[in-house]
Amino acid sequence: MSSNQVPTLHYFNGRGRAETSRVLLTLANVEFNDIRNTLPFADDGIKQKATYKQLPYYIDGDFEVSQSLAIENYIANKYNLAGDSLIDKAKVLSIQQASYDISIPIFTNDTDEKKDLYKNETLPRFLAAWEKILVENGGKYFVGAKLSAADVSAYTTLENLFAKNFKDIVDKFTTLTNFKSTFETIPSISNYLSKRPTDLIF
Ligand SMILES: N[C@@H](CCC(=O)N[C@@H](CS)C(=O)NCC(=O)O)C(=O)O
Question: Which chain positions lie within coiled-coil regions (predicted)?
Answer without folding.
Answer: none
